[in-house]
Design brief:
This protein has a 7-stranded mixed beta sheet, with helices on both faces. It has a 4-stranded antiparallel beta sheet with strand order 9-10-13-12, covered by helices on one side. The protein has a two-stranded parallel sheet with strand order 1-11. The protein is α/β, with parallel strands linked by helices and 348 residues long. It folds into 2 domains: 12-249, 3-Layer(aba) Sandwich (Aspartate Aminotransferase, domain 2); 253-347, Alpha-Beta Complex (Aspartate Aminotransferase, domain 1). The longest helix is centred in the C-terminal third of the chain and has 20 residues, at 328-347. The chain contains 14 helices and 13 strands. Helix 3 crosses helix 10 (216-228) and helix 13 crosses helix 14 (328-347). It binds pyridoxal-5'-phosphate. The site of pyridoxal-5'-phosphate has 12 residues, from helix 3.
Length: 348
């Protein structure tokens, strides 16, 4: 039985073109700045983001942590959403390694922070208070269901942060999903942020790596901090080569993943026992729940047996993600299998 793996877009494998590029990659010692393939990837990413420079990092988590470390000093406060990936899934690195206080504001269902809340949360200069130095945004927003921040919203909230002397970092692990969904260049979505991290190993299907992009001075500092974190990789062109292919050839096709996610959501909504928690599915993430009679644990185990994999989040919240290894017919097949599992569990 073919397994349909909807747990995450991170399960995607390198494509044949990527494997070829890896095999043929020209490499050098990247800590000395001598890996031509890494240099090429960094230049491409900087260009696509409209930033002066970029840094190849091991993961999205490392990119976000480096952004926090580079933009702030120990004891500062950063503002971020209460559903932010940085808060939930990055092992608290910003607090433990960066020594910053994470001040959370409610994310609305679209993954936005209310600009008025942001303004109010910025600390006045006061002997009692930490200094607020960074605002973190996320586009697309993972825990809000792959929602998209628009150019206008991002610019508005950047203006507020900048007017009070804060920097803005965007966790853009899936920034190309946002760009494809909105039909705009990714650079337009990040024009006013001070830094953006983007991932190669999610919907773009590369095996490893992310890029942190920003000004030349910012990236120079981040490069040194990457070394401190043990992220100075030597002949990293071996993996960067796949990243070059990812940026060249895997972006536009993500529209198919979005269409598949919408179809999956429509199909799920029609299955007895399932309720969509996020009706709007703008990109490749589908969030749903179950009626009280169905247990999430049994449901996920039943799907696993039926060859469909999804991720349980907390409570009865479940997540399915589409990607380049899930085809249009796979969606129909997944829905058939999911329906059968629901029927069996409801009858029991
Ligand atoms: C929005 C977002 N940011 C950052 C990350 C972290 O990426 P990595 O798993 O490469 O550390 C993820 C991973 O899923 C994510 O969804």
């Amino acid at each position: 039985m073919r397994v349909i793996d909807l747990r995450s877009d991170t399960v995607t494998h390198p494509t044949p073109d990527m494997r070829r590029a890896i095999f043929e990659a020209e490499v050098g010692d990247d800590v000395f700045g001598e890996d031509p393939t890494v240099n090429r990837l960094e230049a491409m990413a900087a260009e696509k983001m409209g930033k002066e420079a970029a840094l190849f990092v091991t993961s999205g988590t490392q990119g976000n942590l480096l952004a926090v470390l580079t933009h702030t000093k120990h004891g500062d406060e950063i503002i971020l959403g209460d559903e932010a990936h940085i808060l939930w899934y990055e092992v608290g690195g910003a607090a433990t390694l960066g020594g910053v206080n994470m001040r959370t504001l409610p994310n609305d269902s679209g993954g936005c922070l209310d600009p008025d809340d942001v303004l109010l949360a910025i600390r006045e200069r006061d002997i009692h208070c930490p200094e607020t130095t960074l605002l973190c945004l996320e586009n697309t927003h993972n825990r809000c269901g792959g929602t998209v921040l628009t150019i206008e919203y991002t610019n508005d909230v950047c203006d507020i942060a900048h007017s009070r002397g804060l920097k803005v970092h965007l966790d853009g692990a899936r920034i190309f999903n946002a760009a494809v969904a909105l039909g705009v260049p990714a650079s337009a979505l990040v024009q006013n942020v001070d830094s953006v991290s983007l991932c190669l190993s999610k919907g773009l299907s590369a095996p490893v790596g992310s890029l942190l992009c920003g000004s030349t001075a910012f990236i120079e500092r981040a490069r040194k901090l990457r070394k401190m974190l043990g992220g100075g990789m030597r002949q990293a062109g071996i993996v960067a080569a796949a990243g070059v292919v990812a940026l060249e050839s895997m972006v536009d096709r993500m529209a198919d993943d979005h269409a598949n996610a919408r179809r999956l959501a429509q199909g799920l909504a029609a299955i007895k026992g399932i309720r969509l928690t996020h009706e709007h599915v703008p990109t490749n993430i589908v969030m749903f729940g179950l009626v009280p009679e169905l247990s999430a644990e049994q449901f996920v185990a039943g799907l696993e047996e039926a060859g469909v994999r999804i991720i349980p989040l907390e409570g009865d919240l479940l997540r399915a993600v589409t990607h380049c290894e899930v085809s249009n017919p796979d969606i129909d097949e997944a829905l058939t299998r999911i329906e059968a599992v629901c029927r069996r569990l409801r009858v029991r």
